[in-house]
Design a protein that fits this description.
Elements (H helix, E strand, L loop, with lengths): L28 H12 L15 H11 L21 E11 L3 E11 L5 E5 L5 E2 L5 E4 L14 E11 L6 H9 L8 E4 L10 H11 L18 E2 L20 E4 L6 E2 L11 E5 L2 H8 L7 E9 L8 H6 L3 H7 L8 E9 L14 H12 L2 H15 L4 H12 L4 E3 L6 E3 L4 E4 L7 H17 L3 E5 L2 H6 L26 E5 L10 H15 L2 E5 L4 E5 L3 E6 L9 E4 L6
Parallel strand pairs: 11-13, 16-21, 16-22, 17-18, 18-21
Antiparallel strand pairs: 1-6, 1-12, 2-3, 2-5, 2-6, 4-8, 6-11, 7-9, 9-10, 12-13, 14-15, 19-20
C-alpha cells in the first residue's frame, strides 16, 4: 500500500529479531496474514469479502518495524533460484497483460481427523489449499458446511502477466540490482546428498536466524474422497485429485534453510524473468496507489510462490486432453513464478533506482537540492554527448534533449484520439556522404547517447524485411495462449523510441507490413498504439518520445524535420 522505502544514501534502521508474538513478515508473510485472519474470524461480516479484513496497512507497518524494504529481496534483480518460496519479495516490471478475474476459496473449514474439531482458515495469497498433517479440508459442497457465515466463501483476484521493463538501459538495471538486498543463497542438494559449497560463519548465523522464522514444512495434500487437493485458482467450486509431490525424489533439488525443508522442485527457469502477479483487494490498493493498466511500470510486493503444480513428466502433459492449452494460458509457477500481491506502487515510465520514490518526499527534496548546484555542468555534458552523436549539430542536440523530456499534456479531436499535444517528435535527416558512412552510424550513435542518459530507450529498424516479419503492435494469441505477446511498440510511459529508416529500400509490403507502418504512424501523431484482441482492436494511449532517423523526409507524419550538416562525430 505505502511500500515504505529506505535508500542506500540513508542508513536503514537495523533489522531486529521479531518478537515471538508477531511472525516475521519478511520471512513468513503467510503466518502474519493468518494471524490477521484469525483476529477477524470472530466477526462473520468481515469474512464476506477479502476487503473485510484487509492486510495492506498492517503489512506496511510490519515491514517498517522489520527494517523497511531494504530487507526485502527483488525477484527482478536476483535469480529466482536464490529466493525462498513463501517469503516476501518485490518485483518491478511492466504489466504486459491483464487476465480475466478468477475465483478462489477465500474462507474454508479445516477439520481435525481425530477429534472432529473444525477451524476456519483462508486461501488468500495461496495457490492451493492444503491440509495440515492430521487435518482435512471440508469441501465447499459438504452438507455439514456452516453456510456463508463460516465456510466455503469465495473471493476474487485479478492475475497480471508482468515482464521486466523492456528496453531498460544497462546502468538503470545495474542501479536497481545494487540497491536490492542479496538474498540468502539456497544450497543445491543432489540425490538427497549434503549441501555443496562452502559458507562463511556469518552466512550460517544468517541461516539460523532465517530458519527460526520459516514457514512450517509442507503439509500433505488434502486426503478425502471428495478431493485430494483443491486448486484455488480454478473455477469456483472445482476440485481435482492430486497426489502430494515426492519430496525425496532424486535429481537436483533446492535446500531451503535447515534440515527438513528441502523441496524437490525438479525444474529450471531457463532465464525467464516474467512473473504472474495476483492482485487482491483491488479497490483498496487502487485508492492509494491508483488503478493498474497495461504498460504501467509497477513495483509489486508479495508472497513468492514456486509450487510443484503440474511440472512433472512432459509426456503426460502432451497426451492429456486440453492440458497443453491450459498450461499455455495459465503457466504453472515452476515455469513462471507467481507473486501474491500484498501492496504495489506505480514507478512511472522512467524507472531510475538512483532517484528515491515519490512517496519519500523528504529524500527526493534533499536529492534535488543537492543536484541543483551541478545541473548546469550535467546539462552541458548531456548536450555535448548528443552533439557528437548528431555530427556536431548543437541545435539538434538541444532539441533531442527536449524531445527526451517532453510528454503528452493534452489530446485533441474526438475522444482525444486525433492528435497528441506536448510531445516533440523529431525527424533527423542524415546527409548523403561518400560511401554512406554517416548514414550507417547516425541512428546507432543517437540511440547510444540517449541510452546513457535515459533509463528506457528502444531502437527499431524500419525496412521492408522488418516491417513484414512480425507484428509491432501488441496482439493477443487467441489460438494457443490467449495472451498478449510482447511487441516492439508496447513500451512504458516516457520511453524513447529511435526508429532507423536509413536501411529503407524499395520493397513490397505485406498486409502485416502496412499494419506495422500504420501503427508507427499512430504513435508519431496520435500517441496511440492499436492492440489486436483477435475479434476486435482497441487503441491504447501511450506517451513515447519518438526520434526518426532517415536519409530523406520520413515516411511517417507528425515529426519535425531537422536536416543534419556534415560535420564531426
Amino acid at each position: 500500500r505505502g511500500l515504505t522505502p529506505t535508500h542506500s544514501h540513508q542508513r536503514p534502521p537495523r533489522a531486529t529479531m521479531p518478537s515471538m508474538a508477531e511472525p516475521d513478515v519478511v520471512a513468513s508473510p503467510l503466518e502474519y496474514v493468518h494471524a490477521i485472519f484469525q483476529a477477524a474470524a470472530s466477526d462473520a461480516s468481515k469474512l464476506e469479502s477479502g476487503a473485510g479484513w484487509s492486510t495492506a496497512q498492517k503489512v506496511d507497518e510490519a515491514i517498517a518495524r522489520a527494517g523497511g524494504l531494504d530487507r526485502v529481496p527483488a525477484l527482478d534483480a536476483v535469480p529466482v533460484e536464490q529466493l525462498r518460496p513463501g517469503t516476501l519479495v518485490r518485483f518491478q516490471g511492466m504489466v504486459q497483460d491483464m487476465w480475466d478475474p478468477e475465483y478462489y476459496l477465500g474462507v474454508y473449514e479445516e477439520v481435525e481427523e481425530a477429534t472432529g474439531q473444525s477451524v476456519l482458515r483462508t486461501g488468500k495469497y495461496l495457490d492451493q489449499v492444503e491440509a495440515r498433517p492430521g487435518w482435512a479440508v471440508r469441501p465447499p459442497q459438504d452438507p455439514r458446511a456452516r453456510g456463508r457465515g463460516g465456510h466455503g466463501i469465495m473471493y476474487g483476484r485479478t492475475p497480471l502477466y508482468v515482464v521486466p521493463v523492456p528496453a531498460l538501459s544497462d546502468w538503470a538495471r545495474e542501479a536497481r540490482a545494487s540497491r536490492c538486498p542479496r538474498p540468502h543463497v539456497m544450497s543445491v542438494v543432489r540425490d538427497g546428498g549434503a549441501r555443496t559449497g562452502k559458507r562463511s560463519g556469518r552466512e550460517e548465523d544468517q541461516e539460523d536466524m532465517d530458519t527460526a522464522h520459516m514457514p512450517p514444512p509442507l503439509p500433505r495434500a488434502v486426503g478425502n474422497d471428495a478431493a485430494a487437493a483443491m486448486d484455488i485458482g480454478a473455477a469456483m467450486g472445482a476440485t481435482a485429485k492430486r497426489a502430494a509431490p515426492d519430496l525425496s525424489a532424486g535429481g537436483a533439488s533446492l535446500a531451503v534453510g535447515g534440515a527438513g525443508h528441502g523441496l524437490g522442485l525438479g525444474f529450471k527457469y531457463a532465464g525467464s524473468k516474467a512473473c504472474v502477479v495476483k492482485v487482491y483487494d483491488e479497490e483498496e490498493l487502487a485508492a492509494h496507489a491508483g488503478p493498474l493498466k497495461v504498460s504501467d511500470v509497477v513495483e509489486f510486493l508479495g508472497v513468492l510462490s514456486l509450487e510443484h503444480d503440474g511440472c512433472g513428466d512432459e509426456e503426460t502433459h502432451q497426451h492429456a486432453p486440453g492440458m497443453v492449452d491450459e498450461r499455455a494460458h495459465r503457466p504453472p509457477s515452476c515455469v513462471v513464478p507467481r507473486l501474491h500481491c500484498l501492496a504495489y506502487r506505480r514507478v512511472g515510465g522512467r524507472p531510475n533506482a538512483l532517484v528515491p520514490p515519490a512517496a519519500d518526499a523528504a529524500a527526493r527534496q534533499a536529492l534535488v537540492a543537492e543536484a541543483r548546484a551541478t545541473v548546469p555542468a550535467l546539462r552541458a555534458a548531456a548536450v555535448e554527448a548528443l552533439r557528437r552523436a548528431t555530427g556536431g549539430d548543437a541545435l539538434c542536440a538541444e532539441l533531442l534533449l527536449l524531445s527526451a523530456l517532453s510528454k503528452v499534456t493534452a489530446r485533441d479531436g474526438p475522444d482525444g484520439g486525433a492528435k497528441a499535444v506536448g510531445h516533440l517528435a523529431l525527424n533527423l535527416q542524415v546527409p548523403t556522404t561518400p560511401g554512406g558512412a554517416l548514414n550507417a552510424t547516425i541512428a546507432s550513435a543517437v540511440e547510444g547517447a540517449l541510452r546513457y542518459l535515459c533509463p528506457v530507450v528502444r531502437g527499431l529498424r524500419v525496412d521492408g524485411t522488418s516491417l513484414n516479419a512480425a507484428a509491432w503492435a501488441p496482439a493477443r494469441d487467441v489460438q494457443v495462449t490467449n495472451q498478449i505477446a510482447a511487441a516492439p511498440l508496447q513500451l512504458p510511459p516516457h520511453a524513447i523510441l529511435v526508429a532507423d529508416e536509413t536501411p529503407m529500400a524499395p520493397a513490397q509490403l505485406s498486409e502485416r507490413g502496412v499494419a506495422n507502418l500504420a501503427a508507427l504512424a499512430d504513435v508519431a501523431v496520435k500517441q496511440m498504439v492499436p492492440y489486436d484482441f483477435g475479434f476486435y482492436k482497441l487503441d491504447f494511449a501511450v506517451d513515447v518520445a519518438l526520434v526518426l532517423v532517415s536519409r530523406g523526409k520520413s515516411l511517417l507524419p507528425g515529426a519535425d524535420l531537422l536536416p543534419l550538416p556534415v560535420g564531426e562525430g
